[in-house]
Design goal:
Layout lengths: L3 E14 L2 E14 L3 E5 L6 H8 L7 E6 L2 E2 L8 E4 L11 H11 L4 H14 L15 H13 L5 E5 L7 H18 L2 E5 L3 H7 L2 E5 L6 E6 L15 H22 L1
Parallel strand pairs: 3-8, 3-9, 6-7, 7-8
Antiparallel strand pairs: 1-2, 1-4, 4-5, 9-10
């Protein structure tokens, strides 16, 4: 087994709403290994994004700890982490090229190197010809590619992704799944990917963390056995995919039934 990049130990988070305390996450522990693609799924409100935000230092835990490469996560994000948010978060006043370059500019990378790395990112994302386009002229899928490449162009070793394709139509989502898998296959970042879509999790991940309803606890850690590389459309017709979907849904569906009852 490869080295542990992210270690989560007895993690808890409680939010205060006036005089009321709302437990969001309780007693969560799991590891994410080097170059592993881990998806986190569960009912709405179970704390999936809260866990991701705690890994990324956007909010502080109430209890437990998170270690990234052996160092405890604090108030500032670990420098090896990149984050892709639920919304595309591109800046409307910057072109595609300048949106992708943003992180490199903040890091003080030399202009010539910025240009070379942005051109490579644009080519990888299939955005050639749109370098000078502004986000308002792009489709939702293209804007999300820009946001993804803005994170990838700084070469993060660990990538946190919070439902980045949740608002997209099925066709666009499948295209982006294929592109993400191709990019991940080339760069092999360690990925933690939050999604409410079980099909998406099975398509992308090596391992799936299934959460209970709030307060979120781990119900199941599931190793996806589908071989790589994966055909994002063809695999849905395979018996192995259907079997794995059924096994995970059995655990996940119980949480929806409990909420409905």
């Amino acid at each position: 087994m490869s080295r542990v990049r992210i270690a989560i130990r007895d993690l808890s988070k409680t939010f205060s709403q006036g005089s009321r305390e709302v437990p969001a996450v309780s007693g969560v522990s799991f590891d994410v290994h080097d170059r592993e693609f881990v998806a986190v799924v569960g009912p709405s409100g179970c704390g999936k994004s809260t866990i991701l935000n705690m890994i990324g230092s956007l909010i502080a835990p109430t209890g437990g700890e998170i270690l990234v490469d052996g160092a405890r996560v604090g108030a500032r994000p670990a420098p090896q982490i990149g984050y892709v948010f639920q919304k595309d978060t591109v800046f409307p006043w910057r072109t595609v090229e300048r949106n992708i370059a943003l992180g490199l500019e903040y890091r003080g990378v030399a202009r010539a190197e910025v240009g070379a790395r942005v051109r490579e990112a644009i080519k990888l994302a299939g955005l050639e010809g749109f370098e000078e386009a502004f986000p308002a002229t792009l489709s939702g899928g293209m804007r999300q590619r820009v946001a993804l490449m803005r994170s990838l162009v700084v070469n993060p070793e660990i990538l946190l992704m919070d439902e980045p394709f949740g608002a997209l139509d099925t066709h666009t989502k499948l295209n982006l799944h294929a592109e993400l898998l191709a990019l991940w296959g080339t760069r092999q970042q360690t990925v933690v990917f939050v999604t409410h879509d079980l099909s998406e999790a099975i398509t992308l991940a090596d391992r799936i963390v299934v959460m209970t309803r709030r307060p979120g606890r781990i119900k199941l850690l599931y190793d996806v056995k589908l071989p790589r590389p994966r055909d994002v459309i063809g695999l849905r017709e395979s018996a192995e995919y259907l079997r794995e979907y059924g096994e995970i849904w059995h655990a996940l569906g119980e949480e929806f039934q409990e909420r409905a009852s």
